[in-house]
Amino acid sequence: MIENCEKTMDVFEKLVFSTNNNKVKKIFFNQENCRNIDLCAETVAAVLLKDLNDADRKKKINLSGHYPQDDDLMRIVCASGVTKYLKISNLNPQDMLLFELREGRRTKSTATTSTEKEIQSGKLIEYLDDCLNSCEWELKKEGKQYLSRIVAEILDNAEGHSKTSSWWINAYLKNTGNKTGECHLVIFNFGIPIYESMKDVLSTKSPLNGAITRLIKQHSSRKFFSKVWDENVLLTLYSLQEGVSSKLSTDPTRGNGLADLVQFFQKIGKSADKDPVMVLISGDVFIKFDNVYEMKIVTDNGNKRRQIAFNTNNSLMDPPDPDKVKKIKRYFPGTLYSFKFYIDNDYMEKLQNGSPTT
């Protein structure tokens, strides 16, 4: 989905159609000629395919297919993709560290038990620490607390916006050399898009109302809006900025999770010759972070905050780069976060020692 979002969502639509079409008896999943395996596409497809043949479904559909011809890609599919989640394969390669695809649900904490969100957030932090350990690094206590807060806010958003009360996490680390690794992480839910939540803000007494109204008026009056840049995309982009949350009026501590996450991966997730990539898809909005544009400090009415606008001026008053932020033709019924980042010992040492890293 990172490189070929539209075609991937075409496949998802066909899978959903198959779920509701009684005439469909068989699905053939052909990955034979794939030259790249995208974990976010594998993850969503796995969840949809599992739903097709759940035990309580009256209609059963025969699932079959071809693995990728490339041995490395086949191992990724078998270890962390569709066939692993459907229990067709059970591969655990020694050069991969897996956080197997799991479903989380909205639960309530008690005096003796934590919520599912808290449990899985803790397990994910442990997993990320294990990834660093594999390259002889580790998260300090402060780092674990920092990442825990970020992940908790993202999962809280997933729960709050979900139609099904469920969300899913999947990840793997593949060792690529001496003390180096490539990590893929996916978090997604089915529910309302981010921009619908931001629209709800306009009907409340949120302190964000004025800023949102001014932004919409600016882009509308200057005729910036187009087929790939509309109000929904603008609201989604605005939601990424520090201090912005649809729940800010009820919880003033919210609004830092996404900004922290973007900054963390842009700084930590580099390697000597590769930049991390993060993709956000929500409804019909696509946003790609690849270090071409970075989260930077700006001053707004005397207050400093972090901002990423995806243009050379880093200004939300101007349209973003359409290669990075755009409206897409297909609609994803929820929100998906996909991360590809690197753990590179040489880069981390330079970062720790304060040496130039670019």
Explained architecture:
It is a single chain. With about 350 residues, the protein is of the alpha+beta class. It folds into two domains: about 90 residues; about 260 residues, no CATH class. Helices cover about 40% and strands about 25% of the residues. It has eleven helices and nine strands. The strands form three sheets. The protein has a five-stranded antiparallel sheet with strand order 3-4-5-9-6, with helices on both faces. Strands 1-2 form a two-stranded parallel sheet. A two-stranded antiparallel sheet has the order 7-8. α6 crosses α10. It is globular, with a radius of gyration of 21 Å. The mean pLDDT is about 85.
Number of domains: 2
Radius of gyration: 21 Å
- Give the count of helical stretches: 11
Low-confidence stretches: none
Secondary-structure element pattern, one letter each: HEHEHHEHHEEHHHHEEEEH
Strand proportion, as a percent range, falls in 25-35%
User: What does the largest sheet look like?
Assistant: 5 strands, antiparallel
What is the terminal separation in angstroms?
Answer: 27 Å
Shape: globular
Averaged pLDDT: 86
Count of DSSP strands: 9
Strand order, largest beta sheet: 3-4-5-9-6
Helix proportion of residues, in percent?
25-40%
Helix/strand class:
alpha+beta
